[in-house]
Structure formats: C-alpha cells, structure tokens
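Risk register update: the risk of archive-format incompatibility is retired. Evidence:
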Amino acid sequence: MTKRLDKTSIRLYAVIALTSVLGTGVPLSAQQMPLPSDQPASTSRSSSQQVVIPSNTEVILRMSDELSSKGDQIKVGHTFRLTVAYDVRINGVTAIPSGTPAIGEVTMRTGKGVFGKSGKMEIALRRIDLNGQIIPIDGKFRQEGEGNTVAALGAVFFAAGLMFVTGKSAVIPRGRELTGYTQSAVTVQ
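Archived output:
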C-alpha cells in the first residue's frame, strides 16, 4: 500500500532528516516548525478579534427542513430555516462557524395541476444570524416537480375520465446544500 505525502509532511521529514545528519541531536518537532504560508496558523477567532468578511463571499447553507409545494401550507413569503454547512474562513480564521442559523424565503410557488403540470417553487436566501449580528446574503433557487404531460395527453385520447393526471409537487429536501453569497462586506467580532 502506497501512502501519499502532502507538502507539509515532506518538509517535516526533510527537516528531521537534515537535523539528524547534521548531528544537532535535537530534531525539530512539528510544533516548533513554522507552518507553510498555505496553512493558517489560527483556525478560530477569539471573541475580541475582528474579521472583515468581503462582499460576495461564498457561504454553503444546508436546509433544516423539507419544503414542498404540495398542499397550501407553504405560501409566498413563508420563511424557512437553514444552517451554515461549513466554516467560512477568512485568511485562516473562522469568521462564520458551521451550524450558524440562517433564514430563507419562498418567493414563488405553484401547485401541481391537471394535464401533467408540475409544481414549481422559487426560494431566496436572506440572512445569517451570527450571535445576533445579521449578515445579509443573496442566493436564488428554483425547484420543479416532475411533470406527467405525456401520461396526461395519452389519457385525453384514451378516456375522458383519466384526463386528470397531475404532475409532481416541487420538493426541496432537508439536508440539501445551497450556495449563498454575502451582499456586502461586514465586520464580525
């Protein structure tokens, strides 16, 4: 079995080998070695450290609940919950941790209809709530159910009573990941 080594591991082995060959007797440990520039020195920010999140920063959000165009429970203007799926890191510092709550809104919805018409739903990502600090975000998505147009047209030709074949409802499942972007630069603490 071959083990692939990343650049940091190769550098570490090279430093250890050099110190052994040179006879210093004290090899550098990984904690004493400086991190390469592509590796952040800090992974989380202290409560007093400010970080500027640039405008148009990508944020991956995860649906907390399922949305469906079925029935009349969800209407235009309905808000729904999401969470930040992965840490948002700026210069190696976590600016928005995963699990931070967010809100989206249904902006268009149609139910399924006769003759195979599928349901449709459009949603917009609105904001992230970082410990009471609201961070406006943008992101728009459209979901359509599967239509049964062919079955409905066939039903019209074969039997008038079967012409009420409907399409499928639009469904955005719980756990679906959606991409949003910060609307403007914001300083978080």
